[in-house]
Write the structure tokens for this entry.
Amino acid sequence: MILAYRSRLAVILCGAFTASGFAVAESCPPEPIVTLAIVGDLMLDETPGEAIRSGRDPFAPFATILDGADIRVGNLECVVATRGEPEPGKPYTFRAHPRVLQTLKRHFDAVSLANNHSGDFGPVAFGEMLDLLGQESIGWFGGGSDLSRAHRPLVIERHGLRIALLGYNEFLPRSFEADYDKPGIAWSEDEQVQLDIAKAREVFHADLVIPILHWGWEHETVASPRQRQLAHLMIDAGADAVVGGHPHVTQDIASYRGKPVIYSLGNFVFNGFTEAVNTTGWLLRLDLDRAGVRRWRIFIAHLDAEGIPHPAPSSDEVCWERGQGNPSPCGNR
């Protein structure tokens, strides 16, 4: 009698009934799983841009991994435009030709604009980039035509799961910030971040929320106290994972309340670096279900002199699964 009751209860919870009300199945269908691939900085000016102009694809070495994911995301560490003037006094300004978007679109569904190079050529170039991304159907987040748009999540639905992506910049000096009447990027005011995460669920009906941050100190391989404080705040507010970049190196990995925090993915496509610590980046693959991150895996990239990534030996990869303690080498997983 008890076993029959439990069997019927399991079916009721799954919503399976016959017309007469009797159960037709004794097990729930499998939970949908969505694979999200995230990479760090994508700088498509200079030698990576030249490679694309010559007909080469800088993402080709990772195409199998990227194209096997349901959603592919990266941080676009340059403006893509033909107009605008370089920011006076800024030591490095990056502007990629719009031709790069066809190659980007081949491997990525969306990009974060919340970084310290989106404003390199001013609001005219930034506005042109928003138009170009829209024309190519490449999603974006962490920036926009005004403050509201910059803080609006990009919600992508796959296999019945709605995943909200938010982007924020923390790199000082604080500049090119969106305002109520001007374009720019999103900055990470703590109260605003908490509100954005809550709205992603309540207003935009997201099942999962993942903020992507541009933060930390350049070339520092360990996250700062501020990074840790903000990561905890975001998870306390309802984020399911926190992923970061900007330091041009990979940083440590942590878990807070069972949620993963990957503080920096490092560079993914970026020339101009010679030290191994700067020419090593990560591709993060998250397997997501309704409960959050089910498992994750890090694929390691080594950047060549042109700033193009190449897979490292699989023995260096790191994995984690729900219920596991610390991450461990992937082995044959």
